[in-house]
Amino acid sequence: MTPARVRTPAGAESKTRPILPGWGSATAGLRLVRLYVASRRLRVALGALVACSLVLRAALERHWIPSSGPLTQQLPVLLEAGTASVIAVTTHSPFGEPERATGRWLSYLRFGTAGALTGIAVGLLSAGAAAAHLPGGTLDVVRNVAGMTGIGLISATVIGGGLSWIGPMAYLVLSEDAILNSWRTPWIWPTTPSQDAGAAFFAALVFVAGIAIITGRGARQRAAE
Amino acid sequence: MTSLTLPLRSKSQPVRPTRRVRLLRLELRHSTMIWLLALLGALFYFDAFHKAAGYPPFWLVRSSVILHELVPDVSLFAAGVAAWTGSREGRRQTVDLVNIAARPRWATALASFAATTIWTLVAFLGCVAVLYGFTATQASSGGPPWWPVAAGAAVLCAFCALGFAAGMLVPGRFTAPLAALVTFLVLIVAFRVVLKESHPTFALLSPMNSVPHGDAGVFFHYFPDLYMVQIMFFAGIAVAVLGGLGLALASGSRIAWRTAAVVTALGLAAACTGFGLAGTARVEVNGVVIPAVHDAASDRPIAYTAVCQQGAIPVCVHPAFRAYLPDLVAALNPLIHEFGGLPGAPVRVEQVSSSTVAELSVALSSTEIETLVGTSANLTGNPPVLHLALTQMPSQPEPLSSQPLAIEQDAFVDAFIGPAGGTLGDPAQAAIEAALLDNAGSLPGAAAKAANRFAALAPSVQRAWLLTHLPALRSGHIALAQIP
Known about the structure:
Chain A contains 8 helices and no strands. Chain A has 225 residues and is an all-alpha fold. Chain B is mainly alpha-helical and 484 residues long. Chain B has 3 domains: 18-299, no CATH class; 307-443, no CATH class; 453-482, no CATH class. Chain B contains 17 helices and 7 strands. Chain B has helices at 17-29, 33-53, 59-86, 88-92, 95-99, 105-136, 147-169, 175-196, 225-249, 254-278, 325-339, 358-363, 369-372, 406-417, 427-439, 446-455, 459-474, and strands spanning 282-284, 287-289, 307-310, 314-317, 348-352, 376-380, 385-389. At the A-B interface, helix 2, helix 3 and helix 7 of A face helix 2, helix 3, helix 8 and helix 17 of B.
């Protein structure tokens, strides 16, 4: 919630806010989470993740995804990068320094939000592919979404939350090129089968690094944003 | 006491061009796109340039990466950054401040859009300059085709305009990534539609629509028909979207509103005309023909004097293939010696356009990539002359030990022994062809080797391997070397 949206009804007398419950109470915790969710526009993010899942469903039903060959991964990877971009953009804070200075629970909220959204994205994409043949299966979705989310979270700490979508999108372009040219490297995990331990390790490593950095530091605050 | 007469409406002050330039300069200096130039350059190097460098040094073949690789990559970021720029006032909640400023909001919005588009085009044209400069050092004939460059620029302007409009109308933090995502999605889905449809028309408007065959633009002029229609369609979209923004943003000024309406109408007319013309497209072997804009003169073949080298018999190629001639002679000589003295043996080998080889032209379609790249030959005339089409050449002549021209050897034997054009002969023909190729030192393909390896395994081992690897095999994740 931004200061500009705080409105007082015309003619209303200003009131003193009641004393808030202590930090330890469940009501305060819930209120904090609710405000954090509102400030990060998580409802819109969930809508975007649902939209990605619906597009995947439509792609599978309309046979835009070939059943075999190198192009099978092209569209799923695009949607996985899209979900990762959305998750990364939620890290942008409209409050900046005041929130950093006063938010005791900020690290936990960042960690919880990024982790929960990644889980929800995986769940929604898997649900979108339910009862249809998704090349690579759910394991591919878990690995790709987690890895690209890690890239997005690292981007957020480097270039800011608002533009953090650039990281997953740049990785998407590299991945699409690798898919079309049948390159195989664990660093470009969408090109490898889901059983590939090396690719899974690198994706997990990037995800853990992204979560750790965003939990500790938060997204970079740029004056231009 | 004196009274002063004042007009009800003050005279509008014309905006001096220097102020407009200053506004544009400010936007150019603060554009987010500047920070992406290095990233775009790196992606161009790893994607489009890398792919083009693997193609033979023919202008049209190498320029195909502009619309197939470069434009989609740049479009994605251009649309995203344009949406980010367009949503600036909305995100900062300064729309009211901008609305009451002296300059109309449409004018300031156009300056922001122009800055993003200019940087996008700078990145795009810089990449094209590198690509064409590199090709100029290797190509021996022809010149750079500019129609794909113009079409690419029009596509980028359209995606910038769409992204910018999305940002202005739906400002928010998610607009930019979703604009980028939708841009790439549209391009890929349109590409899928082109590949799936046997007679695509409207989907051809997508920049990712076809891959030219390996000798395109060498024997025949390339057809600019589709590029013209793409420019008309995408430039029309860009103009219509910007005009539509003017309609949405113009407040108070009747002149501004009328101007926006006229611009929108012109843009829509151009886009609809382009769309309609694409519906009349006809895919032919030398490119896409659109009757309304087609120039019949471009159907005529390009005159040339063949370059020949005397091996066992004369082998002649187009001057553009001069560099490959020694390799071709060396690859064909063992076969020519084997066939020498046999009835119907060729007395000369001549290169022909892939589009004039009957067997290949039947299968050729600019939308079927797998059949576009191939080699075919036929044996005609008395005395017999082998007409050989070379379409799958390496980027540079390679050592013969690497077997770069094994496909040409296959085509030669196919034409002499069995059905030409890569079609399967009967088992006896196939056996004799394999033996002759083996005599000539032509190694079987890597896939054939892998197939033999796998066939030699016990059925239980084959089944066990399939049980483990079938999903990966189906999704294209198994390399030849991984086959046991």
